[in-house]
Amino acid sequence: MAKDIEAAPPGGEYAAKDYSDPPPAPLFDAEELTKWSLYRAVIAEFVATLLFLYITVATVIGYKHQADPNGPNAADAACSGVGILGIAWAFGGMIFVLVYCTAGVSGGHINPAVTFGLFLARKVSLVRALLYIVAQCLGAICGVGLVKGFQSAYFVRYGGGANELSDGYSKGTGLAAEIIGTFVLVYTVFSATDPKRNARDSHVPVLAPLPIGFAVFMVHLATIPITGTGINPARSFGAAVIYNEDKAWDDQWIFWVGPFIGAAIAAAYHQYVLRASAAKLGSSASFSR
Prior knowledge:
Glycerol uptake facilitator protein; two-stranded antiparallel sheet; 12 helices; disordered N terminus; 1% strand; mainly alpha
């Protein structure tokens, strides 16, 4: 039986791969529906997304309340609150924490765009992908609902943490920001969880949730002024459902179409560009031996 080979540097020889790629997930596996591990993973995605939305939206509402020039902290509004930097840290930090906590159970998606990208790459089945997305959306609704329950006096006043296209930006600009931002996130997810990288860096304490959390942090710094940063359809949908104002719903399509396009591009780039040479070399080696 032929060994898989990996691309060698110019002038070098091809060496046997020291890692193995998992087999593609089946498109539909009825037996999967009978396994407790699937439902445990779905519950983990629900709870993680609920916690993610609760902490992050509460941070947004709290910051706007503290920085409100007409609020009770008006005298200190210019220097109070966590600011945009703190909001970005809240989103990135929570993703780091929750991916670390749930990676061994569900894979730590916490985002329909991530699930969609992994589905396109055949990392998860259609059944699992659909259940994850439903659980993520329900978790997001419940998480934002908790924020409204605890901060009802400020929730509507400060926009409910809903994603909306900022004044002065076109819908095309908002869509492009969501596409690029989600590409960065999903590309990071693929790179951080690549079995090839794990094998090469096995001697280094690489923690996959860390670069994923940093990717979310960096994208928020760039896109908060444009769209409030979606890059997660469940996050945008949950806030829109609870806030339930026309503007949030009018712009909602941007926060689904953009992330799904960005995730699809990231999946294609990783699978067919970055990993294509190794796959082709492995295939040719099998036929030649």
